Structure formats: C-alpha cells, structure tokens
Amino acid sequence: MDQRRSIRGTLFCLLFISLSLLAPACGFAMGETRGGAEPPPSGSLSVSFIDVGQGDGVLVQAGGTNHLIDAGNIEEGPNVVDFLRSRGVSALDGIIVSNPDADHIGGFLDVLDAFPVETVYISGDEKGTLTYNSFLRSVRAEGAEVQLVRTGYLMDWGGVRVDVIGPPTDAEGGLFSETNDNSVALLLTYGSARILLAGDAEANEEEYMASGSYTGPLSLLKVTHHGSNTSSTPLFLNRFTPKVAVIQVGADNSYGHPTPETLDRLRRTGARVFRNDEHGDVIVTIKDEQLDVAVTKGFQAQAENPPTIPANSYGFHR
Ligand SMILES: [Zn+2]
Predict the structure, then answer these.
(1) What's the 35 CA to ligand 1 centre distance in angstroms?
(2) Does residue 23 lie within any of the structural domains?
(3) What is the spatial distance between Cα 50 and Cα 80, in angstroms, rounded to a whole number?
C-alpha cells in the first residue's frame, strides 16, 4: 500500500492507450505522458479501477458526480481514501455494494469516515459477518439513504445512464443461492460507450444477464469475480464482448486468480486486458467518443513491447 501511495504521490509516467469508439476499424494508439492521478477532465466519463490488491474498488466520475463501487478489504481503506482525494473527490453521491464480502466492503469504513455519502445502494443479499455489520452501523451513523436495487432500476450519474441489470427482481425469481451471483451489476451508457461492472457474478448471474435485454458489445468490462474460472463464461463473453477488460486482482493471491482459462477466454474475444497486480491503478477516460486507458505501473515493459493487435479487431458495433 505504501508503495502504491508513493507511486501516486510522485509524478509518474503513465502509459496511455487510446481507442476511438466510432471508427469502424482501428487499433490502439499508444503513447506516454507525464502526470499523477488527478481529477478527470470536464465533459468526460472516468472509471478508475483502484489497485486494492485482491478485491474490488471502482470510482465512477461524470458531470461532477462521484460514485464508488466497492472499496477493497478493510486495510485498503486509507489507500482508497487517498485515491479518491487525488481524483478531486470531496463527497460521494453514492456508494454501491456490489456484494457484501470483505474484499468489497472492508474499505468503506474509512471512506464513510472521510467523505459525506448521500446514498448507499445494495442488492438486499444480507451477510451476517462482523465486517458487514460494522459497515451497516457506519452507514446508519452517516445518515445515508439506503436504496435496494435490482434489474430495471435506472439512474443518471451526471449524464451517464446507469441500468441495473442484475440481480433478478423478485418477480423474476429473486436472488440466487450464492452471494456472488447476487452482485449488483451496472451497465453504464455514455455516448456510444457501454461499460459493464458486475462485481463477483459467476455463471448463474452471467447466464441471467446474457439472456436479458441488455446484451451487446462493450467498450469496457470489469472482469467478473477477479478472473475466476467459474466466471467469464463463453456465453457471457459472447453476449457482452469487451474491447477493454480490467481484472481486479492482487499479486500472488491464494485463489489463483485470474485463472489461465479465463485469460485465454478473454484473449479470444480480442480484448485488451489490464490487471491491477501488473498495472497498478487502471484509469479509463471516455471523452469525445475516445477511450483512453492510463496505468500507474508496468508501462515500461509494455511500451518496449507494444502488443500486436489486428487493426480490425476493435471496430465498435452499436
Ligand atoms: Zn470479490
């Protein structure tokens, strides 16, 4: 964590990878620029995959609004707070609990201490753990509104359309038996860009989403469940084929995430894959139909060995 903070604190060479969302056939353009993590440009959608080790933490910023989806394990709290401040956050319009496991909610305790939070979005899949109970106590102390969200719930985050596309409503059969499959899944639409953030969804919830009405190519996918082999099913990747995929994963984690099979399935989609253990914070900015990826680690190796990407692999299909 300290090392990650010092990376952010110093002006660091960021690798930028750009892709036009409108050009029918285009590859990535790569370049380098100098700068640390900083507030997003105006008129943009920024999605930051914070390096929280083995866990999830995604900051979405658009039109002056800030939403945080998950916050990593409890020891990552100061790291997440530090990142949010570096991105100009002084208050959160909402926090979203994708699922109540410790690697998603632990860091929220420090976040709730550091920032006013207006609304907390949850799926309603409760967990009686000490961490979740502490989280609920903090939410009550904060006085934040708690909103239960399932498929069909629609939000506007500063001009970004946000559709909740999982877990199922009670009318559709209600929650699945496994917590991971009840992850709050968010589909963000901004111009022609489509971004899917679906927490730790595994095969059941992926199949549910794949057979729903929100399918289509994605500009950006947060790879489900840290790249486990029980997620990123062929059906799901076929219905939600990403151009850019980000895996939130810690180095040398005991789960073996991401698995070689998942990496192989992602590679076959043609997606450009980023991962927190190799690239540090992964910051995606979408502005004027252009998607830029900036990373805080591992840029040298990539810049020296730019990936060979077929020029026609990244056409954006609406
Ligand atoms: Zn997780």
Answers:
(1) 30
(2) no
(3) 7
Q: If we measure between CA atoms, which residue out of 126, 113, 119 comes closest to residue 68?
A: 119
pLDDT in tens, 4-54: 555 554 434 456 677 778 665 445 666 555 445 678 888 999 999 999 999
Q: Give the domain extent around 74.
A: 2-6+43-298
Give residue 41 CA to ligand 1 midpoint distance, Å: 30
Span 284-304, average pLDDT: 78
How far apart are the CA of 103 and the centre of ligand 1, in A? 5
Token representation of residue 128: 């009686």
114's tokens:
């550091």
* CA 293 to ligand 1 center in whole angstroms: 23
| 147 assigned to some structural domain | yes
The DSSP-derived string for 29-86 is: EEEEEE--S-PPPTT-EEEEE---SSS--EEEEETTEEEEE---SGGGHHHHHHHHHH
Pairwise CA distance, residues 2 & 10, whole Å: 12
Work out how many domains the chain is built from and give that number: 1
